[in-house]
Design brief:
heterodimer, A: 162 residues, alpha+beta, Ubiquitin-like (UB roll), DNA polymerase, domain 1, 2 domains, 5-stranded mixed β-sheet, 5 helices, 5 strands, 33% helix, 15% strand, B: 785 residues, Aldehyde Oxidoreductase, domain 3, Aldehyde Oxidoreductase, domain 4, 4 domains, 7-stranded mixed β-sheet, 19 helices, 28% helix, disordered N terminus
Chain lengths: 162, 785
């Protein structure tokens, strides 16, 4: 199959690759670039595990072809925190509230929620649940995830020290 | 373990494993990438039941990038039916057991849609799937066996012709004499109940990477299994290798919930074998459609049940006869129907019990345990019988339960039948009334019935209350083991054989060790699921990790503690009784400057020169095993308020409370998470999730568009409270909690739904759906008019 050249910026690094037109973006990220933090749960766009940020917006990387990402900027879960110690407030909040169990769906939840927590200083439970509704989690029953989002919003929008 | 105030044990410690998972740095099976790795895909049966007349793989083999194509014929002597994982139980009456286990690749006949027929290995998964389309199989379709009652008709087509019947097993268990109960009864209630369970649907599907290193003569397998050690042992046997040549790693696993304990899946048998044939690493990752078709699931049982009672609501006896859909094969034996049979008895005194079941072969996916593992089915029958009895006798539904609870001073309580672990079903401990009282208080039982319900109704709203009780047999044998070792840097390594799929073992097991050694939880690394690290054990199932592996870890940590005290008492010249362990040091009580680092003791315990005392083992290390004589029985009460829209049949949960007793709690945060997740799956099972096979045995619900896993919109906030009745049968006092949340939700929905319409109809079937609710509501209205 004839390959096409693409250029994609992922987590601040620009990659040039020749890929088959049929290659899924999720497979490109995971298996061409080795960014395996993005997980694949269903490959039909329901579970949300493969969510990434494309030009700052959450999208499902299993519903896009790699060639469609040509010229775009992507953030994956690996780009959210520099290491395992200096976590983003949303990641910290997930840990504090026990909002993950097996952790397989977690990167997708984080990527779906990042724009939400940035823009919602004080969301209601209903707003949070609606924001979560596009991602499936089979372990937690969502309650601790709702708490994590609340905590993250507090941490991110706390008044700065004078 | 005493109930004294502790630093680590019983605390809501945040998890050690989270930073890796939160930053995308945890290793799952599909993240394994090896040089020269090939990719596998399976051609699976499109028919539920058909004879295979011919298989033509020539076009697939000729495709560029295809490395190998295997059919059953190519496997030679390696083609064998899989092992019977759980043999039939030692019950007194078992007229039939037909052992029929799955085969690696279907040979003459296929028995369910999704059964593998051809294995393709190629340079990429994309090419492997291209090749599947070039495979030509000539099928002669046979009539599907879908309905379990029709399967028992004399002229029914047979799933296994050589068995001469579709009955996989027939088991009878009895306690006392049902006829006596019947003779003494004031009231006998008889109903038919259908309880259908579903797909586990873990977010990570199954997957395997196998790497045969021809020069090292070693096989390494990364597998999404809940039981890495038995997989290692079995693979070594099948492949003619020594166990030390095979290393099985169950790395981070994206949820298991039961089906990942099933062994051996066809793919687990084939991928390592193919890697040895080709001397290259091979990866197979299941896609979601394959997961729906070919991973094991749970399905339905039809119970014809009777309960005999006195006029004042005392249970005299229960009679139950049920059919269990076991699917095309029965590799996991009778665990699921036995659980249903045993768990039906619940927290109640049932003097006489007759229970009989037939497991039935059908041309559908194999049934093996999924979270609850048949317990749901039994609990549904008993709780429904009690609700109906309470109505007929004019009793309050909580009173009839209270009246029949096993009293707290009657333990250990012998139910006189055989449980799934083949031991007599004996409850270790329990205290049921406090849980019921607490649940009634939390849900506002009296206030709802006396005031709120009428107020809702005056507003035109249908709100009902449900409250049900259950027990869960957990923490069964045979055994687990663990090694605890203090490193020269003072950090501690704990290795155990069980795998982990999100239960928080990296933290709860560390808490057990931290408590003994006074080392902070974050300085304790727990290694699970790697046969190179610890190679004895069985696996993670039956809510047994914390109880069985946790107890082995406790014993090993205690032995290391004793060695620390012995060495330190010699070094510091004080009695061991005057020593304390904290912050990675051992020190003289009241004189914290007279201290030794545990790391330094570990170095001293492994000298390079000099003589050590005879019979001294090197290092600060101990290995211990724990095998409980019997399981630990957890229990609980769930209650909820359910609002039902009579026009659409949709429901909304207004309040959900759980009072749970899992004995001593190691980490309340983790226990709460386990309960939340269990309830979410129970809600899915009760109202949203349904496996639908059509009359041809085609699965109609093979995607998340059709099989509705609840989202954050469907799962309500839950209030969780605990009663702690420690188990006397393990040193931690712990009972399992993994499955509990999921078990009682079906009967809870049924009762609340009936209550919302003042018992105008009876609910005898789970799962419910908006259509069914609408039909029940409108059917009852037609009856009245």
């Amino acid at each position: 199959m004839q390959k096409l050249s693409i250029e994609v910026t992922v987590n601040g690094t620009t990659y040039r690759r020749d890929v088959e037109p049929r290659l899924l973006l999720s497979d490109f990220l995971r298996h061409e670039l080795g960014l395996t933090g993005t997980h694949v749960g269903c490959e039909h766009g329901v579970c949300g595990a493969c969510t990434i940020l494309l030009d700052g917006e959450p999208v499902r990387s299993c519903l896009m072809l790699a060639v469609q990402a040509n010229g775009h900027t992507i953030t994956t879960v690996e780009g959210v925190a520099p290491n395992e110690t200096d976590l983003h407030p949303l990641q910290q909040a997930f840990r504090e509230t026990h909002a993950l169990q097996c952790g397989y769906c977690t990167p997708g939840f984080l990527m779906s929620l990042l724009p939400f927590v940035e823009t919602h200083p004080n969301p209601t439970d209903d707003e949070i649940r609606e924001a979560l509704a596009g991602n499936l989690c089979r372990c937690t029953g969502y309650q601790h995830i709702v708490e994590a989002v609340k905590l993250a919003c507090r941490l991110m929008h706390a008044p700065q020290d004078a | 373990m005493t109930a004294r105030e502790t630093r680590y044990f019983g605390k809501p410690v945040r998890r050690n494993e989270d930073p890796k998972l939160l930053t995308g740095r945890a290793l799952f099976v599909d993240d394994v990438d090896l040089p020269g790795m090939l990719h596998a895909a399976f051609y699976r049966s499109p028919y539920a039941h058909a004879r295979i007349r011919a298989i033509d793989v020539s076009a697939a083999k000729a495709m560029p990038g295809v490395v190998a194509v295997y059919t059953a014929e190519d496997l030679g002597d390696y083609w064998q039916p899989g092992p019977l994982l759980v043999p039939p139980p030692p019950v007194h009456k078992m007229p039939v057991f037909n052992k029929r286990t799955q085969v690696p690749l279907a040979k003459e006949k296929v028995r369910f849609v999704g059964e593998p027929i051809v294995l393709v290995v190629a340079e990429s998964r994309y090419i492997a799937e291209d090749a599947l389309e070039q495979i030509d199989v000539a099928f002669e379709p046979l009539p599907a066996v879908v309905d379990v009652e029709a399967a028992l008709a004399p002229d029914a087509p047979l799933v296994h012709e050589d068995a001469g019947t579709n009955i996989a097993a027939h088991v009878i268990q009895e306690k006392g004499n049902w006829e006596e109960a019947l003779a003494a009864a004031d009231v006998v209630i008889e109903r038919r109940f259908v309880y259908d369970h579903g797909h586990a649907a873990p977010m990570e599907t199954r997957g395997i990477v196998a790497h045969w290193d021809a020069r090292m003569q070693t096989l390494t397998v990364w597998d999404t299994t809940q039981a890495p050690i038995p997989i290692r042992n079995g693979l070594a046997g099948m492949l003619g290798l020594s166990e030390h040549q095979v290393r099985v790693i169950a790395p981070f696993i994206g949820g298991g919930f039961g089906p990942k304990i099933m062994m051996f899946y066809q793919e687990e048998v084939l991928i390592p074998w193919a890697s040895m044939q080709l001397a290259r690493p091979i990866k197979w990752i299941e896609d979601r459609r394959e997961n729906f078709l070919a991973m094991t699931q749970e399905r339905y049982q039809i119970h014809d049940a009777k309960i005999a009672l006195t006029r004042d609501g005392k249970i005299l006896g229960v009679w139950d006869s049920f059919l269990h859909d076991t699917g095309a094969y029965i590799p996991y034996g009778l665990t699921v129907p036995l659980n249903a049979q045993c768990t039906l008895l619940g927290p109640y005194v049932v003097p006489h019990y007759y229970s009989e079941f037939k497991a039935v072969f059908t041309t559908k996916a194999i049934v093996t345990p999924y979270r609850g593992a048949g317990r749901q089915h039994g609990v549904f029958v008993m709780e429904r019988l009690l609700d109906i009895a309470a109505r007929e006798l004019g009793l309050d539904r909580t009173e009839i339960r209270r009246k029949n609870f096993i009293p707290p001073d009657a333990f250990p309580w012998d139910n006189e039948i055989i449980y799934q672990d083949f031991a007599p079903l004996v409850y270790d401990s329990g205290n049921y009334e406090p849980a019921l009282d607490k649940a009634m208080e939390m849900i506002g039982y009296r206030r709802f019935l006396e005031e709120e319900k009428a107020r809702y109704r005056a507003e035109g709203r249908h709100v009902g209350l449900g409250i049900v009780a259950y027990v869960e047999g957990t923490g069964i044998g045979p055994y687990e083991g663990a090694r605890v070792q203090v490193q020269p840097n003072g950090k501690v390594i704990v290795a155990t054989g069980v795998g982990t799929q999100g239960q928080g073992h990296f933290t709860s097991f560390a808490q057990v060790v931290a408590e003994q050694l006074g080392v902070p939880v974050e300085d304790i690394t727990v290694v699970t699921g790697d046969t190179a690290e610890f190679h004895w054990g069985t696996g993670t199932f039956a809510s047994r990790g914390a109880v069985v592996a946790g107890s082995a870890i406790y014993e090993a940590a205690k032995a290391v503690r004793e060695k620390v005290l012995r060495m330190a008492s010699e070094e510091l010249e004080v009695s061991p009784d005057d020593l304390e362990l904290a912050d990675g040091n051992v020190f003289v009580r009241g004189a914290p400057d007279r201290a030794l680092r545990l790391g330094d003791l570990a170095i001293a315990a492994n000298p390079l020169r000099g003589a050590v005392a005879p019979d001294t083992e090197p290092g600060l290390e101990a290995t211990r095993y724990f095998g409980p004589p019997r399981g630990a029985t957890a229990s609980g009460v769930h209650a909820m308020l359910l609002e039902v829209d009579p026009e659409t049949g949709f429901v909304r949960i207004l309040k959900y409370v759980v009072v749970h007793d899992c004995g001593t709690v190691i980490n309340p945060l983790i226990v709460e998470g386990q309960i939340h997740g269990g309830v979410a799956q129970g809600i899915g099972n009760a109202f949203y999730e349904k496996i639908v096979y059509d009359e041809h045995g085609q699965l109609l619900t093979a995607s998340f568009m059709d099989y509705l896993v609840p989202t954050a919109m469907e799962v309500p906030p839950m209030e969780v409270a605990h009663v702690e009745t420690p188990s006397p049968w393990n040193p931690l006092g712990a009972k399992g909690v993994g499955e509990a949340g999921a078990i009682p939700v079906g009967p809870l929905f049924a009762q609340a739904l009936e209550d919302a319409f003042d018992n105008a109809f009876e609910v005898t079937e789970i799962p419910l759906s908006p259509q069914q609710v609408w039909a029940l509501v409108h059917g009852s209205k037609e009856k009245q008019s």
